[in-house]
Structures are given as C-alpha cells and as structure tokens.
Amino acid sequence: MSLVYISAFIALVALVDAQLLNLSSTHPIREALFLNNASAFNNTRDKCVWRPATQNSAACPDQDINFILYAESNRELVDLRETDWLRQSSWNSTKENVIIIHGYAGGDDTLPIAVLRDAYINNGNYNVWMLDWGPLCQPPCYAAAVHNMRAVAKCAGEFLTLMRSSGMSPSRTVCVGHSLGAHICGLISHHVLFRLHRIIGLDPARPLVPVQARLSPGDAAAVHALHTNAGHYGEMGRSGHVDFCINGGKTQPYCQATENESLCSHVWAICYMAESLHGELTRKAEPCSRRCPSGSRPGHRIGIPIPMGQSTPLTTSGSYCVHDERPPYCPSHPGAPGDKRCCIT
Fold first, then answer.
1. How far is CA 144 from the centre of its chain?
2. Which of 168, 241, 245, 308 is the most exposed place for a label (fewest CB within 10 A)?
3. Residue 143: its pLDDT value, please?
4. Close Cβ partners of 4 (under 8 Å, ≥ 6 residues apart)
5. Are strands 173-178 and 126-132 parallel, antiparallel or unpaired?
6. pTM for the predicted model, two decimal places
7. For residue 290, what pLDDT band results from cuts at 50, 70 and 90?
8. CB-count exposure of residue 74 (10 Å: 0-12, 13-18, 19+)
9. Strands 222-227 and 173-178, sheet pairing
10. Which residues are annotated as catalytic?
11. pLDDT tens-digit profile of 148-165?
C-alpha cells in the first residue's frame, strides 16, 4: 500500500468533518474514536446508528447487515427470507467456506478488507462470504460500532444456522475477522446451537471493547489471532489458542515512516493473512513467551516453527513470534504473487 493509500485510509477511518464535530484535526484518529473528547461524542451520538443489543430485540434480516457470496465468478446477495437460497445459488459444496468480517469504517468493497477478499477469491478453493455491516460502523461512530457488534453477531448466527440447514457444514467453515470483525466472529458463538470450527482474528480491536465481547479461545474449536498493533488499536492479551506476535506484536517496522504508525500496523494484519493463502509466501513462526514481547527476539523458546495464517495446524496452542521487516504480501517484482495495495513505497 502506498503512502497515498495510507493517507486516504486514515482519512476514511477518522472522517473528521469539522462542521459536524467542531474539532481540530491534530489527532483525527483519537477524535474519531472519542477516546479523549467526551463532549464530541455526546454531540454526535444521536447522529449514529444504534441497534438493540439484547437477544430478543435485535431483528434479522436487517437492511444494514448483508451477506454476500463470491463463488464461481458470481457475486450474490443472500436473502435470509429464502429458506432454500443456498441450493439455488452458485455455492460449491466441494469447497471450503470462509466468512470475512470487516472492522470499523469498512464495507464489502472497501480497503483494506478487499485485499483479503480478493486473495481468497483468487485462491479458488473457497466459497467466499462477506459480512457487510458498513452502515452500522461508519465514522465518527466508533462507540456505536462497538455497541452494534452484538446485533451483527446475532444476524450472523441466524445466517449460519440457515446455511447449515441447507447443507453447508460448520466443520468446513472458518470465520476471519479484522479489528471489530474479529470480535464479531467470536460473538457468533452466542447465537448458534453448534460449535464454530475455526476463527482467525486479525489484530482484534482494543478501544472500548468490553471484556465479555472480546474474542477468546472458547468461541470456537480453534481460535487463532494475529497481533500487529497490540496495546493500541489491537488487543493486548491472549485472544486465541494460538496468538501470533508479529515483530513484537505492537508496531510494524515498515510503518515507522508513515503518517500513523499504529493505524498502519493495525491494518497490515490483513496483508499477513492474505499472504498466507500462497503456500510459498507463508511465514513460519517460532514459539515465544505467552504474551507479545518487546524487542527483537525476547522470550524466545526452542520449539518447532509453525505456519502462520490459513495453514496453522488446528491442534496447536501457545504464543508464536514472527520477525521479518518486509511488508507482507507486497510483490517482489512484476508478476510475483502478492497485491500492490500491500506495498509501502
């Protein structure tokens, strides 16, 4: 991803409208999250979309929560009112299923999540499902987005239940979520009567997320988390059976020259995951201390390295560290595997 893209994405996440917020743009991310300005939050909360959080009051289908299938070169919007929808779609029962959930300020066709969506589509071995909850998580309504996670998870649970009754096996389905989307993957477990097979959390979000809503090892048979900005935009503690600490897990070295080092680090978890879909690019991680350590190679323990991302063994547990200063999934030369949107120039 170029510096131009980074600036554009930061502007998207912050979306600081001076007329609306009446704020300076000195710290746009902090202002967008209302982490340091309670009065600004109070002035805008009525303009945000808030969905009921209780099990009985959240209604599905919801016009602001869409499920989209990418299969056999088709893009199809799921109709949850059609009980036989799956059998009439382009869904391929011989392929694995991946449900991708974006985070704050995202949508089906927005960056950075589109990088991961396209990587799965181009891989060709997956029915790719996108959960688009964009209208419920747009800036400057971060607090509302956190609140809306439960309503989104409830609808996702109903979606999975319907697909399961139509023939889609949970044992061949993985939920991959970035930031707030990682926690939504975990919250789905509260709304289904079967056990989720696998969750991959890409730098699960930290700000304002209550403990009971955070991704945890109990949310699926296998829960894996990639940490790239732990302690800032990303969660600091243990999130899964396997926690990958990338370059210490807190900030990424190739983000140091960017406008916002923490946000850049948080976003690039998506590129690491996309990279893991190419076997020759998959990075190996070594065992390390339980939490993401600081420095170059602290807490290193002797053990067998494992692949990080899509190919991580489901029976593995513990913390693993990756140390590599190269931006992930950036093509090394024209025609090389990767995505130019993951390059820093």
1. 18
2. 168
3. 94
4. none
5. unpaired
6. 0.87
7. low
8. exposed
9. unpaired
10. 179, 203, 266
11. 999 999 999 999 999 999
